[in-house]
Design goal:
The complex is a heterodimer.
Chain A: E1 11-13, H1 19-23, H2 31-43, H3 46-64, E2 71-72, H4 74-93, H5 97-113, E3 119-120, H6 122-134, H7 143-162
Antiparallel strand pairs in A: 2-3
Chain B: E1 13-17, H1 21-34, E2 38-42, H2 45-54, E3 59-63, H3 71-81, E4 89-93, H4 100-107, E5 111-114, H5 119-131, E6 136-138, E7 143-145, H6 179-186
Parallel strand pairs in B: 1-2, 1-3, 3-4, 4-5
Antiparallel strand pairs in B: 6-7
Helix pairs in contact in B: 2-3, 3-4
Classes of the chains: A mainly alpha, B alpha/beta.
Chain lengths: 168, 194
């Protein structure tokens, strides 16, 4: 049996930092002032962000239709996930609720698909269509239409949730 | 009444490591409007390491997934190898990376913030990290801020909910109970058989 190396002792200390003093200097902004200014600042990025949402949806659409015999690769699913994450972030920031819901549904779906094999493209195609319908600049849908679309997306998730995971 | 701290970010520096340029634009704009103008925006973990060897920063924001490496590996590197290992680190995660929360905590991050970013949440977190006093722990398996909160809680006025009690409980409205009265309340008593 090899001799055990001596265990390093834990060191606990208060780091020397001037950050607290810097932040507490007179001046600066109160929470309300800072938040109000930040919300106005985010609003200046709206146009660019809407373009970014469009680009992300296009990327999802492109991947969805790239599947060979209706099957995607794992790396393509990760591409979808990255774009869906971006859609959720931007839709959440600008309060595009339906797009946010469809984006989250796509993230959840990809998480489920990654546990199965092969990876079917069809659920991604349907989610891409939903994203496009909820995209900014599109005619707004009625509450009933929105409900039907989101319910369909939920059905896909429920199906793959019930599907047994692929064995490693 | 909840105290609202004023924060003066003038002269404070932040390093933003994020592969997605739209995300970094949003974060950068929010911080700039808070008054934190001195920002370095970097896309990759390798660039961030090189930058930190040269320049000290006060806050470090890092995406959980970077183009060239796992963001949590970068956090571990900062804690173990950077010239200033104890800087406040915020890890940003997307919706699909909620699982990164535990990993980020164990890597030594001070906080994990889920995107989309809320200016309110971000301001509160920066106030909590910047104004609070948190010890630093170095062990064989963990280097980072002390993760034990039970006895201290968040700084006064920075509770998570509006209903959180402040430390100021006001004047007593009734005389204090005597020790005998308190003991009587704690004393085990036999219940009568029904």
């Amino acid at each position: 049996m090899s001799p055990k190396s001596p265990k390093k002792k834990a060191r606990i200390y208060l780091p020397a930092s001037t950050l607290k003093e810097q932040l507490s200097r007179p001046g600066g902004k109160s929470r309300d002032e800072a938040v109000k200014a930040a919300i106005a600042g985010v609003e200046t990025l709206r146009e660019k962000s809407m373009d970014a949402i469009d680009a992300a949806i296009k990327a999802v659409e492109a991947v969805a239709h790239e599947g060979t015999n209706g099957v995607l690769t794992e790396s393509k699913l990760h591409d979808v996930l990255r774009n869906a994450d971006e859609i959720v972030e931007l839709a959440g920031t600008f309060r595009l609720e339906n797009l946010d819901a469809a984006g989250r549904s796509l993230c959840d779906l990809v998480g489920l698909l990654l546990k199965t094999s092969p990876y079917p493209a069809e659920p991604i195609v349907v989610h891409a269509r939903a994203l496009r319908l909820f995209a900014p600049g599109r005619p707004s849908l009625s509450a009933a239409q929105t409900e039907v679309i989101l319910a369909e997306l939920a059905r896909f998730r429920a199906f793959f949730e019930a599907k047994p995971a692929a064995s490693p | 009444m909840e105290k609202s701290p004023r924060l003066n970010f003038n002269g404070v520096t932040a390093l933003l490591v994020e592969g997605d340029r739209h995300s970094v634009s949003l974060l950068s704009e929010i911080l700039r409007r808070f008054g934190l103008d001195n920002q370095y925006c970097i896309e990759t973990g390798a660039e961030a390491k090189a930058h930190m060897q040269r320049v000290a920063v006060d806050f470090f924001f890092c995406e959980a997934v970077l183009p060239d490496m796992d963001g949590l590996d970068l956090v571990r590197w900062v804690r173990r190898s950077a010239p200033v290992p104890y800087i406040p680190i915020v890890v940003l995660t997307g919706y699909s990376r909620v699982d990164a929360v535990v990993g980020a905590r164990d890597a030594g991050a001070n906080l994990v913030v889920k995107k989309p970013l809320s200016p309110q949440v971000l301001f509160d977190r920066l106030a909590w990290m910047g104004l609070g006093t948190r010890k630093f722990v170095e062990t064989e398996t963990y280097v980072g801020p002390d993760r034990r909160f039970k006895s201290i809680g968040p700084p006064d006025g920075l509770g998570r909910r509006s209903t959180d009690l402040s430390q100021d409980v006001g004047e007593a409205t009734e005389p204090n109970m005597t020790q005998n009265e308190i003991d009587a309340m704690m004393k085990p008593t036999k219940l009568a058989n029904i």
